[in-house]
Amino acid sequence: MLKYITLLCFLLLSNFFTYAQSTGKLSGRVVDNMGNAIDGATVSLLSAKDSILVKADFSNKEGGIEMEGIKQGKYLLRITNTGYGKYFSSPFSIDDKNNDIRLNNITLTISTAAMGEVTVVSQKPFIERKLDRMVVNVENSIVAAGNSVLEVLERSPGVVVNQESSINIKGKSGVIVMIDGKPSPLSGADLITYLRGIPASTIQSIEIITSPSARYDAAGNAGIINIKFKKDQRQGLNGSLALSYGQGRYAKPNASINLNFRKKNWNIFGSHSYSQPQLFTRFYINRKFFDADRKPVSIFDQTSFIKQPIMSNNSRVGVDYYMGKQTIIGAMFNFNWNKNERDGSTNSVITYPDGEIDYLTKTAIQLNEKRFNGFGNFNIKHSFDSSGRELTADIDFGRFRATTRQDVFNQNVNKDDVLLNDNRLNTDQRGLITVKSLKADYIHPFSKTLKLEAGIKSSLVETDAEVNFYDVVNGNAEFDPERSNHFLYKENVNAAYAMLAKEFTKTDIQAGLRMEHTSTRGDQITTGEHFSRSYVNWFPSLTVNQKLSDQHQLSVSYTRRIDRPSYRQLNPFRIFVDPYTYVVGDPALKPVFTNAYELSHTFKGKYITTLNFSRSKDVITDVFVQDDNTRISYQAPANLQDFYIVSLGTFIPVTIKKWMNASLSVNMFWNKYESPFQGGNLTNDFFSWDARLNSSFRMGDKGWSAELNGFYQAKNAWGLFVIRNIAQASVGIQKLSKNRNSTFKLALTDVFYTNRVAVVVNYQNMDFFTDRTWDSRVLTLSFTHRFGKNTVTKARQRTTGVEDEKRRAG
């Protein structure tokens, strides 16, 4: 990080003094031995007379380098990159006759130097803010050790995690979660369960993209979260092993291994992780029920405690083959086996308004759930020439299967604990989702400053979900056809996009347009009901970056996006939560359309202020429908008419010499939900804010370091709900071994046990409060060891074709 700050400061100073003089420019391209572009190489322009640094820059993602405003004189060019040998050019001159130097491809050769110390010295901070995204460097975090990916997301800027069902960014729902550029296979509660089972030790970084371009699927109103697994870039056989043990109320052990073999034209990689955390959820809810004049007639006080052991296995294997310098073919497979058990008890005290007990309900719930998610990708990339013209194609497929068995035993007793009645209910749920996708993307540079990108995609999703209810009478399970259901759903999305990018001297413009045709059909087998839809939508995007001066840069963007309901939200099943609460779907849900605008200012290349505004039509949120006669509530997704949000955020990195790096991000936002709903006019708006501090400290030169992280989310609105404030603080300490291949970490998360979700609803006949806590305060000891050779080859970056489809599965 220090290297980047030093170079940036020098750039600002050198540009200031050379701007008014007669100047020239220099351009070229940096590649590796295989002819692949090298992104982020350090390019230094030196005086030929005394080797003093005159100008510095980095190569872009196409390997391109371009320096302007070079004063007349005689120079040398030096290019370096981690894992490669240094390059020095022959002396050259810039004068009136020779003021536009265009170099041939510059090849950096692989260095045999060890990587251990370099990795530590140039360690990235936990949070990095880049022009189009926020990057959370998970592998550099001490307090992330022993955590799950879900817990790391909780501490990420602008991200709010509902522990049971959703992930939001800056107060907006509709997030695409991608794994290595491929979307996660699940949504809602299924996605939360999946991320809770992945150890953070297997993750390299998390990217948060709030304004995706037209190359991405148009889905995801709030943006994209891309979770990138570790992938070793060294030659030969190498990898890493991680072990950790966490202790909260219950134990949380996990282990993972990453392997990579790279030789000549072959690169084979794989990883496996195993985790077995013992979790719990403590849940409290207070509900009031009313008569026709809205006078309270009954009050429910419910307390629940659910113990939830999880066993999760995650495997990943892939291969890349370099067919010469221009063509790469590859395959990648991801597998997840997850077993989730729940042993819960709920006690409900039902009282009259004066506090007298009416009756009590005691409920015991046993749940056993097994999941298997399998995903495969075949891909090819062909570069036509050294200009960056290339074609990529992907074939993706996945199958996601879940079986859930639930046993519910319910007793009603009077205030003297005398049994009034009891009943027993069994449910058997089965779900299968199949995803297939074809995708192709083409990049055509017309010049160094003008580039066209275009692509097509076709995806097909088929779901088969069945739930059967059984009333247990005298030990015999009797099928209940009234509550059982079988639902089939098919969705085909065909898309095409084009995007044009143009670079001027101080202005960059990127404009794109995406077209998506959607065709759906749903069949409710039990009732014989059917529905189908077919529609075409257009999604423009525009980004303009303007360099105002050496210290100020302005960026303006616009995107139009869609958020289709998940397959579970469309499913009309009734899922049993407790005797008084069900979760149901709605096949009549409409997609959400959002227009989003963003203005961003960057000062000195690192201090970033962003202003956002977006408006969503028919936004989907969870709502409650309460029946005062039966005292049963249904949680269901619903389209609310309008949703507005305005946010102002700032990102401030701080470096104090070599011993401290910190970043502070603060967001202030106002959001408003407005819609006719349940016979009334719903208006729910709040001004809110959140802040996140991430800091790391180096303690001497013997491998010791520490970390302090924390976040605070003030009270805010979400649909019908008002979510109360949430906070968390975490600390950790780390020790590197002498050879820097082994790392020991000790961390404590949620030090003050303040990370909890409390929700208030007061609308029409609903007046209730909920409070949820879980095993968030955990002390974790972890050990990581790297092994293998240390020579490095630039890793291949790729994405695949399944984006929105897999996110919505589940």
For this entry, give a set of tags.
810 residues, mainly beta, Maltoporin, Chain A, 22-stranded antiparallel beta barrel, 6-stranded mixed beta sheet, 6 helices, 46 strands, disordered N terminus
Q: Any overview of this molecule?
A:
The chain is mainly β. The chain has 2 domains: 2-111, Immunoglobulin-like; 127-789 and 796-807, Maltoporin, Chain A (Beta Barrel), CATH 2.40.170.20. The chain contains 6 helices and 46 strands. The strands form 5 sheets. It has a 22-stranded antiparallel beta barrel. A hairpin with a 3-residue loop joins strand 22 and strand 23 (327-351). The radius of gyration is 28 Å and the shape is globular. The chain starts with a helix and ends with a helix. The model is unreliable at 1-21, 112-122, 792-798 and 802-807 (pLDDT under 50). Its main location: membrane. Residues 382-784 form the Outer membrane protein beta-barrel domain.
As a percent range, the share of helical residues equals under 10%
The top-level CATH class of the largest domain is Mainly Beta
Low-confidence stretches: 1-21, 112-122, 792-798, 802-807
CATH superfamily of the largest domain: TonB-dependent receptor, beta-barrel domain
Count of separate structural domains: 2
How many runs of DSSP E, i.e. beta strands? 46
Q: Quickly give the structural class.
A: mainly beta
Proportion in β-strands: over 45%
Taking all Cα atoms into account, the compactness measure Rg is 28 Å
Main sheet characteristics: 22 strands, antiparallel, barrel
Average pLDDT score: 83
**What is the CA-CA span between the terminal residues?**
41 Å
Q: Count helical runs.
A: 6
Main location: membrane
Subcellular location: Cell outer membrane
Keywords: Cell outer membrane, Membrane, Receptor, Signal
Protein name: TonB-dependent receptor domain-containing protein
